[in-house]
């Protein structure tokens, strides 16, 4: 058995969250979460479609690239 299966998923109960590896469960249903991306807190509301995903998949950490206009 792999170590990750033995340990199980990581759950955090706080609503202002610095940990992007937290798994979304039914506990977070219809709650507004603020997740830190390294610069600011981004907020969003959890729906049923986002259960069992990680919080980091909804918060981008890099800016989108744009070409400079000369």
TrEMBL record:
Keyword line: Mitochondrion, Ribonucleoprotein, Ribosomal protein
Entries under Gene3D superfamilies matching the protein: 30s Ribosomal Protein S19, Chain A
Pfam family, one: Ribosomal_S19
Any one GO cellular component localisation term in the record: ribosome
One GO process term, biological-process aspect: translation
Gene Ontology MF: a single term: structural constituent of ribosome
InterPro entries reported in the protein's UniProt record: Ribosomal_uS19 (IPR002222), Ribosomal_uS19_SF (IPR023575)
Membership in a protein family: Belongs to the universal ribosomal protein uS19 family.
Protein name per UniProt: Ribosomal protein S19
Organism of provenance: Coscinodiscus granii
Protein encoded by which gene: rps19
């Amino acid at each position: 058995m792999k170590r990750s299966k033995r340990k199980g998923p990581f759950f955090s109960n706080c609503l202002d969250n610095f940990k992007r590896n937290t798994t979304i469960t039914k506990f977070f249903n219809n709650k507004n979460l603020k997740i830190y991306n390294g610069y600011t807190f981004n907020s969003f509301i959890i729906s049923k479609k986002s259960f069992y995903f990680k919080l980091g998949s909804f918060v981008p950490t890099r800016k989108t690239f744009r070409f400079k206009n000369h």
